[in-house]
Specification:
five-stranded mixed sheet; Immunoglobulin-like; mainly beta; about 10% helix; 30 strands
Length: about 425
C-alpha cells in the first residue's frame, strides 16, 4: 500500500511538473542552424580567455580560446569562419566586410598528436578574434569549423559578442504567483540607456534571457513594460519566469586509476569504461542543495601531463531507474558537454532486463555536470525538469542579452550583457 501511495504521488508531481514547464519559455527560435557535430570530433571547448570556465560570451575586443579533438588521429586542414545573425538567429543581411576586418576565413594551424592515451586523437586549437580576423560589431555570431566547404561544417557553435553601452539592473526572486512560488524563479529587469539614443524602444530594443547558458528554454523578444527617464522597465508577473530546476547530477573522471565521484566501477577493455551509479528521479524528493557548475564541464586529467594531449577518453555509462516508463517520450543526457543537444548519441534506451534507461557516451577525462530531460514525441514538447523536479532554492545562472537595432540599421547589435545568480535571493 505504501508503494502504491508513493507511485500515485510521483505521478501527480510528474504531471504538475510537465504542466508548468510549458506555460513559460519559448523554444530556440531557429534550430535549423544547429547541425550535428562530425562524429569524429569530440571535446569541443570554447571559453573567453578572461573566464575560468567555458562560456559563449565575450565583450567586443575580447578573445575566445577554442579547441577540439579529432579521433581520426591524423593531421587535417581545418578552417573556420563566422557569420553574423540577428536576435532571432536569422542570418543578418549585411556583407562580411560590415562585421569583419581582415579575412573571413582562418586556417587552424595549431595541432598536436595524443600521447600515452589508449584512444588516439589529434588535438586542435585556435583563438578568435585575432590579428587576421577582427570583429567590427557586436551581435550574435555562428562559428563554423570545416574542412573544405563552410556550407558543410564539421561543427557550429553560437557566440555572443557584446558592448557595454546599456546599464542593466536585474534581480531574481521567487515567482510572484502563489502557485508557482515553490518551483519558479522570476526575473526583474531595468535598462538605463542614457548613453544610447532610442527613438522607438518597442521596435528597436528586445531582450533575451538564458538560464545556465542554454538556449533551449530561453525567453526571447522581451519588450519593455514601463518607460522612464532613459530607462526601460521589465517587471512582469509571469512573462519572465523560469522553472528553477534542481542541481545537476555530476561525475569526476579526472583520474581513471581509481573510481571518482559518483563512479560505481571502472572496467578496462579497448578503452576505459566508466560505470556511474544508477540515478533516480528527484521530482518527489525533498530539495537537497549540492554545489555544481550549472551544467558546465572541465577537461582535466591528473594521471599524466598536459590534458590537451594526454587526457584519455572513457566510455561513460549512464543509467536511470524510474517508477514510470516514459511511453511516447524520449529521455536524453543533457549538458554543456554536448552543447545542450538532443540527439541520438545522448538518448537513453530502455533495458527491459534491468528495468533501467541506459546509454553510454565517449568523453574525455574531466569533471562533468549533466541532467536528464524529456521530449514528448507526440507534440515535440521539451520538459527539462520532468526527471529532476523544480525547486525555488536551486542556484542558477541567468544571462541577460540586450539587442538594439536603430530604425535605419540593417543588423542587431548587443548593447548590454549581464549575468546574475539566483543564490542572491537567499
Amino acid at each position: 500500500m505504501t508503494n502504491l501511495i508513493r507511485l500515485v504521488t510521483a505521478l501527480i508531481l510528474f504531471t504538475l511538473t510537465i504542466t508548468h514547464v510549458f506555460a513559460q519559455n519559448s523554444p530556440f527560435p531557429n534550430p535549423e542552424i544547429m547541425i550535428s557535430d562530425d562524429v569524429n570530433l569530440k571535446s569541443i571547448y570554447i571559453h573567453n580567455i578572461n573566464q575560468n570556465i567555458g562560456v559563449p560570451y565575450a565583450k567586443l575586443g575580447e578573445t575566445f580560446a577554442i579547441s577540439f579533438d579529432d579521433l581520426d588521429n591524423d593531421q587535417k586542414n581545418y578552417f573556420y569562419t563566422v557569420e553574423h545573425y540577428d536576435s532571432n538567429w536569422e542570418k543578418s543581411d549585411i556583407f562580411d566586410t560590415d562585421y569583419i576586418e581582415g579575412y573571413n576565413e582562418g586556417s587552424i594551424k595549431d595541432y598536436a598528436y595524443s600521447f600515452n592515451s589508449l584512444e588516439k586523437y589529434t588535438h586542435y586549437s585556435f583563438r578568435f578574434p585575432n590579428n587576421s580576423m577582427r570583429l567590427l560589431i557586436s551581435g550574435n555570431y555562428l562559428l563554423k569549423v570545416y574542412l573544405d566547404d563552410p556550407s558543410e561544417p564539421a561543427f557550429v557553435r553560437r557566440l555572443v559578442i557584446y558592448e557595454d553601452i546599456v546599464t542593466i539592473g536585474a534581480k531574481v526572486d521567487r515567482a510572484t504567483i502563489v502557485s508557482k512560488r515553490d518551483t519558479e524563479h522570476q526575473i526583474k529587469l531595468t535598462l538605463n540607456h542614457k548613453d544610447l539614443t532610442i527613438d522607438n524602444p518597442a521596435q528597436e530594443v528586445n531582450v533575451t534571457i538564458l538560464q545556465n547558458n542554454t538556449w533551449d528554454n530561453g525567453i526571447y523578444g522581451l519588450q519593455y513594460q514601463y518607460i522612464g527617464n532613459n530607462t526601460l522597465i521589465y517587471n512582469y508577473n509571469d512573462k519572465m519566469n523560469f522553472t528553477a530546476g534542481n542541481y545537476f547530477y555530476h561525475f569526476d573522471t579526472k583520474s581513471i586509476q581509481t573510481a571518482g565521484l559518483y563512479t560505481d566501477y571502472i572496467r578496462l577493455e579497448d578503452i576505459y569504461n566508466i560505470f556511474l551509479y544508477t540515478n533516480e528521479p528527484r521530482y518527489s524528493y525533498p530539495y537537497s542543495s549540492q554545489q555544481d557548475y550549472n551544467g558546465g564541464f572541465v577537461l582535466r586529467s591528473i594521471d599524466g601531463g598536459d590534458t590537451a594531449t594526454e587526457g584519455d577518453y572513457t566510455l561513460v555509462h549512464f543509467s536511470l531507474k524510474t517508477d514510470i516508463q516514459y511511453h511516447d517520450k524520449d529521455i536524453y543526457v543533457y549538458g554543456a558537454f554536448n552543447d545542450w543537444r538532443l540527439e541520438e548519441d545522448n538518448k537513453l534506451i530502455y533495458d527491459k532486463d534491468y528495468e533501467v534507461y541506459k546509454t553510454n557516451i565517449l568523453l574525455k577525462q574531466g569533471y562533468y555536470d549533466y541532467k536528464y530531460v524529456v521530449v514528448d514525441k507526440k507534440n515535440n514538447e521539451f520538459m527539462p525538469d520532468a526527471i529532476s523536479g523544480s525547486f525555488y532554492q536551486t542556484e542558477n545562472n541567468y544571462s541577460i542579452i540586450v539587442y538594439y537595432r536603430s530604425m535605419d540599421s540593417r543588423y542587431d547589435r548587443v548593447v548590454g550583457f549581464y549575468q546574475l545568480r539566483s543564490f542572491e535571493m537567499f
